[in-house]
Design goal:
Layout lengths: L1 H10 L2 H32 L3 E3 L9 H28 L10 H26 L2 H8 L18 H7 L2 H5 L7 H17 L4 E3 L5 H5 L2 H8 L11 H10 L1
Antiparallel strand pairs: 1-2
Helix pairs in contact: 2-3, 2-8, 4-8
């Protein structure tokens, strides 16, 4: 494992880095996505989850989502090149892959992602951006697991910058950076699967993406990612 990580960080060509990063995101999207949907359906059968919107999807919606997501996957692959370049030029410092460093790093990256997503998403709802950029994502009125990366390329580019916005300032373990896309997309699936876990009330509505599902289907003006906490803080500040 250590030799593989060293090879990727220091010796692999940038074409190899792109291929590995792109392939990683392809697996997260095309294998983990359908698996997550299958798990939701099993929970629904057991009465542990229920659909938020029951109407049928528009014809070709999933095909359109996959088409836009493919562009996003390319952009995410290219973001891996940028991270590795900054590592090799010393602008990103790395910690050793101890359990504590990995755990702390994954938690911090996901917390930062919540703030980063809120800022980008709020920007996407500026009228010009909503009309010309974010409209691609909002074509999925009834979201699906295939909606998670269905973006205009500009939005995908902005959302790909999470590691670039924090890693040059705070050192992370390489595995923490590598695990972060997995934890992020799992939260993303919960926010787009069109399933409400449990009754969708209390902490479940704050953590498991119910509000973002409803942002698509009901047009509710919440801009958070996995939680409604930042939206609540933002509302208090506005008052």
């Amino acid at each position: 494992m250590g030799k593989s990580i060293h090879y990727i960080l220091q010796e692999a060509s940038y074409l190899e880095v792109f291929a590995l990063t792109f392939g990683y995101f392809v697996i997260l999207y095309f294998i983990l996505g359908p698996s997550f949907l299958w798990a939701c359906k099993q929970l629904e059968k057991k009465g542990l989850a229920n659909k938020i919107v029951s109407r049928k999807l528009p014809k070709n919606q999933v095909k359109t989502e996959i088409k836009h997501s493919f562009v996003s996957l390319i952009i995410f692959g290219l973001s891996g090149i940028t991270v590795i370049y900054l590592v090799r030029t010393g602008q990103i410092k790395l910690l050793d892959n101890s359990f504590i460093n990995i755990l702390f790093g994954v938690i911090l990256l996901n917390v930062f992602n919540e703030l980063h997503f809120f800022v980008v998403h709020r920007m996407m709802h500026i009228p010009f951006m909503l009309k010309h950029v974010h409209k691609v994502h909002h074509k999925s009125v009834v979201p699906t697991v295939y909606s998670v990366y269905s973006f205009h390329w500009v939005e995908a580019l902005l959302l790909s910058t999470v590691p670039l916005c924090i890693c040059p300032f705070i050192p992370f373990a390489p595995l923490a950076i590598g695990i972060y896309p997995l934890t992020s997309i799992l939260l993303n699936y919960s926010g787009h699967c069109n399933y409400r876990f449990g009754n969708g009330k209390g902490m479940q509505s704050l953590i498991f993406g119910t509000k973002h599902n409803e942002h698509h289907s009901k047009g509710r003006q919440n801009f958070g990612f996995a939680s409604g906490l930042i939206d609540r803080l933002y509302s208090l500040i506005k008052k």
